[in-house]
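Sanity check

After download, print the first record. It should look like this:
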Amino acid sequence: MVRHPRPDPGTTPLAPDGDPAARLRAGRRPRDRGAADRPDPRSLCARRGDEERGSPDERAADADRQTTRTARSRRTRDPGTSAWLPPADPGPFPFRSDHRRRERSIHRRCASPRRRGSAGARGGRRLAMRSQALDRAAQRIVWIRLAGLALVLILAARAAHLTVADTRARNLYAMQIRTEQRLAPARGTIFDREGRELAVTTEALSVYALPHLITERSKTAEALAKALGIDVAHVVRRLEANGRFTYVDRWIDPSAAERIHALALAGVGIDHEPRRAYPAGKLAAPLIGFANIDGHGVRAIEQKEDDWLTGRPRRVRVERDARGRALALRSTNPREAQGGDILLTIDGAMQAAAEAALQEAVEKNDAQGGIALTLDPRTGDVLALAEAPGFDPNHFREFDYRETRARSFTDVVEAGSTMKAFLVATALDSGLIDPQREFDTGEGSLRVRGKTIRDHEPHGILRPADILRVSSNVGAVQIAQRIGREVQYRGLLRFGFGASTRSGFPMESAGLVRDWLDWKPVDQATIAFGQGISVTPIQLASALAALANEGERLRPRIVLARRKPGGAWQPTEIHEEGRAVSPDAARRTLDMMQTVVSAEGTGRLAALAGVPVAGKTGTAQKLDVELGRYSQQRYMAWFMGVVPADDPELAIVVVIDEPGGRFHSGGHVAAPVFARIAAAQLARRGIMTEPAPIPAPRPLPAHQLAEHPIRQADGAGLPAPAPVAAPARDPESTPASPDEPRQVADAAPPPRPAAPEAAGPPGPEPEEPAFVPDFSGQTMARARRIAASEALRITALGAIEGRVVSQRPVPGTLLKGKDRTVRLRFARHREEG
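Expected structure tokens:
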């Protein structure tokens, strides 16, 4: 193995100047091209201080030794001989890599303490280098923080841009997939007092459109109009709406919905929205009212209890495919949209009986309309409110809005001679008269400040009961003059006239009662028999109920209870409105009112078999607005009554508007309607009765037969009743002097004859509709009596020695034709049947 001698570190071998490799091996720094441009190694350490590095000769020697070590480190051994080989030829530019190594070496030496010099110098260098390192680290931390802050600011700016500046684009993108809409909520259910459904919420189909997703609106409008059978212009207007959601047509037929679905139009879909339905149809429609197409109550109870019945708005999500076609319309939370339920005071069977009797009377008398009200005097509950003509709330859009009002609460009218009963009660309560006081009515006329008040015929001396029985205008005026204007006025206010009943019914009128200081003597006189004072039917019924409730007036109650979804019924309170008269005055007045329904009274046609009736007739002229005076042809016939008079359970008011027949008085027209309604409604309370037959009247004088022909009796196969006595004019109509308004007094109507025997072959048995009463809890014997009073047949099932637990048909069902069978199930213990 050949060993190359190592050069002496203290000597510098000579080498040809032109051989860079030789110079490198000799430890000399190559001097090639660009050497002058390289950084001086000394300058890199100059800032450390020349005094720490020794003399220039020492530094040169150190540099030579370093060069020698670098050259040695580049030598390699021969793998075969293990001899040191000369460094490989670095090529034509060896100085570049060598210069970089030298720089790194110099930097390392600068960063490490030198071996030479004192220990204090080395410690100072360490501190200096450590301080510089800390400075550089601090600078790096500052730069890192600045870079992080800049990054945060950039991200925040981008987030703000996406949130604010790009909201519209993002919303449009989201709308292409799904959209959430607010639709009408599902309303609660309205029941009658027996739990029968009167107003429910069902499902209706409606066509909706999303105009922003429809590109070809004209073609879409034509297709929709053809499928729905509506005007194209209407569809175009709906599609040109600026909103994101619009209904094209609502409450459509299922067949139309199928046609729309088959078209698969972009931006068009079918919505299953809630719709208000009324299973009983016209039954109690004026009291229930209706909700409009958007689910808001706009009449009667639907309006009064709108906040309770209405739930929170439905939130629905519309999902669409890539073409914009609606895939589904789903509620996000169906439970939150349910409204509360209402239990009314109305009795469905009583209501049906009142409506049937009222409608028949309106048609029979060719009248413009009528009203029948029934109140429970002990609670103020409105048990029935019938109005004719009625309307079907299921088709409310087919009626004029004014035709859907509850006239019992909204219309003010004059109640005629019915007001005499409250005048007598007030006079008795004041102590200024007593039941035995006599009033001389003379020849049936009375002059008051140039005006003449007349009766239909002279009555002479009359007591208060007689004044009510014959409905004497002159006697009523004399009572009013006896007690004075202020007492008369205060009595009217205590009975509730001139103010709302505070029932909460929408648009209820207060009536009109002028202050007594503004009354003239003639005003006091006319108000005594019902002219010059305006009332509502509900006010009159409430005042009558006060008489039946021993003088205590209660607020009319329409809502019996309320219930939240899934909760229990919460009953409403009974409100006392104050005492109208003393209990003694109320009882005495009811006793006097019973004479009105006697055979000699004006209300004899209101009598019931076996049940005492306290009533009062009334006939009021209607005001002719165009002429500014009372009409001579238009009247309102009234009858109000309490049954049973000795233990009041029902207070009933009946009015027939503008009867067009031969008679127009309350005793002729309204009293028979009262009798029929009272008999049917008392059966619901377990009191069986019927309109009482009246003995046959005396024959009509021959000279009056031609002037007053007798009409054929109602009912097929029955002969005409015997002619009855009648004066030359309508016995209730008494004209005043030619320059005065006409006063109307009630007279005794022709008595209702008993059923005569048929003169020839009997005709077919009349098949009048009958309402099924409620047999619940009745024994077999009692059920038979109830069925007999209604001309019904019963079929008994179960333990007949028990009581009725179920029945078919249900109470209140209207039976027509010959099939009048009611199936009753009996059981020893009350149970569900």
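If your output differs, re-run the checksum step. Summary of this record's structure: The chain has four domains: 20-117, 178-344, 348-391+405-556+574-696+727-744, 770-827.
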